[in-house]
Every structure is written in structure tokens, then in C-alpha cells.
Amino acid sequence: MHATDVISKPITWEVLRHRVQRLLRLRNAEVLLQRSEARRVSLLNQTLEGIITVDEEGRIQSFNPAAERIFGYSAAEVTGKPIRMLMPGAYRQRECYLPRETYLGGDAPTSVTREITGYCKGGAVIPVEVTISGFYAGEQRLFIVRDISARKEAERRLRLAAKVFESILEGIVVAGMDGTVQSVNPAFTVMTGYTEEEIKGNTVAVLWSEELRASFSGKVWDWFRRSGHWQGEVQVRRKNGTTFPALLSLAAIGNGRDQPTECVVVLTDLSEQAKLREEQRRLQEHTAKLERLASLGTMSAGIAHEINQPLNVIRILTDGMLFWHKRERPLEPDKVIENLEKISAQISRIDEIIKHMRSFANIGRDMGKPEPVSLNDAVNGALGMLGRQLAVHGIVVRRMLAPGLPVVRGHTGRLEEIVVNLVVNAMQALDKVNRTEKEIVCRTWAEAGKVCLAVEDNGTGIDAALKERIFEPFFTTKPPGEGIGLGLCIVQSIVTRYGGRVTATNNARGGATFTVELPAVPQEENGGK
């Protein structure tokens, strides 16, 4: 209270009122100032940006919580310290802690924003953006610091993504959800012949072959819209009209609210892989033919025996008729006709054997569409070819074939090849066993919509260490020159092609059991049979 505020002489009510009003205004101004300071402190504490005030000597006067989080120092640790302690490199020199632009002079010194590196407690260095206010005499300078680590990382990832987009070997197309092309990478141009200018604005449908165009507009696109992704091998059309095999991958890109806005199309050229697969297929077919020829060699003794029997009957019948003819005692016409019919029947039998063997030898050729066939007939046919050879090896074969077995969809020749390979594999295993009783059991049955075949022997069984590899191509335990290791691989390939599976286990008699399961043809598809 000032001396003038003391009432030392009589005053009027008007003078008193003015003095009271003046005191109230001073009080209100003080309250407003306190509130303003409180708001300032609150803002400094809540802002995400580091706020640092520095005096004319470059010493820190205030350090808000955001600055503490950015640099790791508490306000008490840095207050009164030089601001350059937070700035590594050239900025740590006393005369360089402020950019030159802030010294330009004049009535309105310049505020400057810079991206520099900040020096944190513990030695970590982070990228920061600093805005430094203009300098006014008698006032503090304001530093506004933003941690831009996340932004720099995002920029780095964007640069990396751009480099990947430009250098990756797969063709990439970015398109709208309606298929309109927005951008492509250089690999796409090399792959298809379309430049970005030529393809941009068109739809990706210009790349589809006729077959893909039909399916893509239907089930493929429906699946993609539901799931947000799709992948498959397709034929892609180049600019010049030729096509090439490619792995097509589709992925939807969302806007963060589960609303896809673009899709990414990735094309991987499979031309070389297709050539390699074709070459591998030809090699496997050629090797499979060699394997079948080896099987024919194994069956040759049995085949000779099967053909020799009807030949002996034919010889006996013809020699008998010639004998009576030389003695001028001709046979009655009915007897001659009877003998000729018998000869014809034996010739038909030889013809069936030859056709059977020719069919087996030519299994690698296109056999047409699979049709309902009997697995029991295939077992009987294969054992008929192998019977003599099994007998020579001292092996007894037991057939336990279920009557009325449902048919399966396939080819008789292919199914016989399965049986031949499994039986020959069992025969070779039994050749290693020194025992008098050697037996192979061929058993068929039906269960739960499947038709099953088991070929089991009482040999040495399968080594546990080799069990996982026995179906691999060219894997064999035989000495060099005695096998090429394709028999079981062929079995698995045929069974898989017919939608079935084959497994191998050791049985209670010490030998191995190979089980083949094939889908049974429903009765309604086979005329109710």
C-alpha cells in the first residue's frame, strides 16, 4: 500500500469509490497473471514437444517434461548448463550453438528451424528438429525440440521400399480395386513388354489369357474380394500376344479402416521353372520306362512259361492232325473243327498275354481319361505276369481278395504297375532272407469310401532310419547296377494321381507291409454296381 493510499484527511465518497476500484483492478490483474502462468506451466507440461529456454549466455533456464523424455535428463540435471551439451558435433562449440541466421540483427531477429542430431543422456544420438526463436535483449531464447526418430525411420523405410520396388525381379503392379493400373516397376516392363505409360490407366485384365480372363471375372475375383488375397499359377499375356507361365499373387491394401482401396499384383515368371519341370518329367518318364523294362526282365521267365503252355497245346493238336493225315486217315470234319477251335482259343490266350505285356511296357503313354476299374483284376493280372518268377524264387503268394469289391477310378495298366512294383519289391526283400518259408500276401478290402490293397511279406522289414526316404526318386538300398530306385516312387506317383495314398509299415512277422488306399467310385456313378 502506497502512502497516497492512507486516508489522512477527509475525503468524499467519490474519491473513495475510485480508490476501491483501483485496488480491485490491481487484484484482478494479479489473479489473471497467476492464471496465465498456471496455463503456461500446464501447456509446457502437457505438450509433446520439448520446450527449452536459454539465456543470453546459452545456459538452460527451463526444461519441460517432453524435453526430459526426449533427452533423458531431468530438469534439475540441465538447468544452468550450456545448451550445447545436448548438441553433438559442430554445434557443441560455444560460438556455434546458434545458427548464423539468428544473428542477422535488425528489429525482428529471425526464427530458424533445423534438423540436427541430439545428444541424449547415456550417449545415445537421435535425430531432432529444433526451432530457435529470434533473440531479444533482456529476454530468454526459446528452443522447441521435436524427436523425429519415427519420421526418419518411416522415411528410411519408404526409401528402402522404393529401392525394392525398382530393383526386385518380380513384376509388381499397383492398381485400384477396379483393376485400373496406377504404377508398375521396371521388372514388370521387362516381363510383359508394357511400359508404365502404356499400361497406366488400363485394367490388369489386358494381362490375362483367355482362360484366366474367364475364371478371374468369376470365382477368383470373388475369392479375392472376400479374403483380400489370392495366389495361383496362371498364363500371362505379353504385349506381343505371347503368353508365359507365372505365379500370380494378389493382395488388397487397406486404408486403416478395413476398407481396401488398392490391390498389389505380383508376377513371378515361371518360364524357367516350367522348362525344368518338363525336363524333369521327361527324365522321370524315361527312367520309369527303364524301370518297367527291368520289371519285364524280372517277369520274363513267367511270361515265357505263360506263352509256352498254349504253344504246347497248339503243337499237340496240329501234330495229331498231321500224324493222321500222313497215314491217310483223315479226321472227321467235326473233329477238325473242334481242334481248330481249340487252337484258336490258345492263340487268343497268347494274344491276350502279348497285349497285356505291351500295355504294361507302354504305360508311360497317354492312357486317356480314368475310368471305373477293378483293383482285384489288377492284382490278378500282375500276379499272373509274376507267378512263374515268384515260384522260381521259392516264394508262395496268397491272395486274400475281397469279393464284390467296389471299383476305383483309374487304368488297369497303371494299377497293375502298382502291384508289380510292390510285389517285386517284396520279392527282392525276401531274396535277402535265408529261410525256407517265404511268403507274400496280397489282400484287398473296402472301408469308409475307400478300396485298399495291402502287399505284405515276411522279410527283413524297413529300417527306421530309411523309412522317410523310401518313396524318394532314385533312392535305393540295392548295390550299384541292381536298381535305380524308382519303383516305390512310381507307386506313390500313380496312387497320388488317382487321389489316394500309400503308406509303409513293419508287420508282426518281421517283414514290411505296403498299403494303398484309393477312393471308391460311388455306386450311383457306376450304374449302381
UniProtKB/TrEMBL annotation:
Domain PAC: start-end pairs: 230-282
Domain of life from the UniProt record: Bacteria
UniProt-listed SMART domains: HATPase_c, HisKA, PAC, PAS
EC number, UniProt record: 2.7.13.3
InterPro entries: HATPase_C_sf, HATPase_dom, His_kinase_dom, HisK_dim/P_dom, HisK_dim/P_sf, PAC, PAS, PAS-assoc_C
Domain PAS: 36-88, 157-203
Enzymatic class: transferase
Keyword annotations: ATP-binding, Kinase, Nucleotide-binding, Phosphoprotein, Transferase, Two-component regulatory system
Gene Ontology terms, MF aspect: phosphorelay sensor kinase activity
Domain Histidine kinase: 302-522
Catalytic activity: ATP + protein L-histidine = ADP + protein N-phospho-L-histidine
This protein's name: histidine kinase
Originating species: Ammonifex degensii
